[in-house]
Amino acid sequence: MNFPDNIFSISTTEEFEVAALALFREQVVRCKPYAEYVELVGIDPNGVRRVEDIPFLPIELFKMRDIYCGDGEPEKIFTSSSTTGQTPSRHMMQSLALYERAFTTAFERFYGNVEGWSIYGLLPNYLQREGSSLVYMVDRMIARSGSGGFYLDEYENMLADMASDPKPKILLGVSYALWDLAEQFAPKLTNTIVMETGGMKGQREELPKAEFHKILTTAFGVEKIHSEYGMAELTSQAYSSGDGIFRTPEWMRVVVRDVNNPFSVSSAPSRGALNIIDLANLSSCAFIATQDVGRIFDDGSFMVEGRLSGADIRGCNLLVQ
Fold this sequence. Notes:
Strand content: 15-25%
Structural class: alpha/beta
Number of strands: 15
Shape: globular
Radius of gyration: 19 Å
Largest sheet: 13 strands, mixed
């Protein structure tokens, strides 16, 4: 199979399933931790003939093993955010060019050319540590757009820069920083999409998503709050244009597993723990069982409703309904 070009040209369910099965057959041989997991759970790779039969690797293994099947040394190792005492996940990325193609193509599926936007990144906790895939993504998008920038807590400077910027703007921020901005300044933003990416990081109390978004829409004078769903272990992102309903690019799919039976997986409308197929995870594992809980709808969109009990706190939409 001609990876990765075939991945980004996927347009039908049939093409997705052909690509997913082909990548499974490759990764179950080349990715040693994934091969060991599949053997331990008693699944014969030769018997996997449908996407529904593909086993999903528990995301926790990215903390314990090098999940890698690339050629040669990885070009970059991204790490997850973690609280004191926790072990971060490591995502070994063979090609930054592939990562850039994935996040640029996914963004432009939903928002058009990056060059048409100014990107303002309000990501203090991500900027203050090494290895954030989100910071890398936003940095490259800022460079490509030619306008915008990163800000820690320089709210007044950021608002002044945004007010003088004639281009359409995306203010992409971690949830607690957006709340701080709303509380301290309540700026009425024009020609701007507000996009939250992640939870409170222990900085503020967790609120139901609808309640939190109402605080932001009132303060910023916008109709909806957009969201980005991504994590260190993924190469691709899903986006929500409001109401917490996410849509994926064509090479990514979310399915639901039974919280009491991890091998019971459904792509039909249902609620449970979320499994993700990200075909852009070419050099790691494309089939991941996350610790997020939510539901999927009949058009393939999904909603994140919280975390499995006992799961590590992470920066991936932790606003529990």
